[in-house]
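User: hey, got a sec? need DI3L2 exonuclease folded
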Amino acid sequence: PDVIIEAQFDDNDAEHGQDHLQDTLTDEIKKLSLDTREKGKAAAVTGVHRTKQDDGPKVSDPRLLPDEFLQRTAKVVYILEKKHSRAATGFIKLLADRNSELFKRCAMFSPVDHRVPRVYVPLADCPPNFVTKPEAYSQMLFICRIVDWKEDSNFASGQLCKSLGQAGEIEPESEGILTEYGVDFSDFSPEVLECLPQNLPWVISPGELAKRRDLR
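Assistant: Yep! Here you go:
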């Protein structure tokens, strides 16, 4: 009953009428029934059952299966080194359940990078009028840093660090990417700037040009 037979209908079928088409379908169904019975007999003889998704043998004890049919599994037991900055760029919004106690204390932070989990952030970190006018911040980018993720929670806990600006603009988007990857983009210190030539405009002296290879 789960088999669909597809038949072509052309001008010859129109000439012979509907009976010819019906005979064609009947023949196809008979052929399929014979093939199914033959496969069933072969499976009964070998004692092995197969499915469309898995051509491997079905056994009750997985230890009897060859290695090629096994999916290796593992369990994380310890984090040796934290490589991620724990910072993410995203948007804040109110929780869906307005009657819960959590709604009065936290907002939901949704990262732009979907590899980062959603985060509960305190309402105290959000703008003062966020609860009354959440739509005003629907397109505002924020930086959130994850501080904890409990085993019994679907969402991590974090703190809002900074408001970047409107999503889609170059400056906020660039600052968010640099922060996520831990790139220090702050201004150079006075000590670093003192190492640079102070007499401007500065040019390469002829003596330096004479002893260096010009790659310009």
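Quick note: The beta strands are 87-93, 106-111, 119-122, 140-148, 156-166. Let me know if you need anything else on DI3L2 exonuclease.
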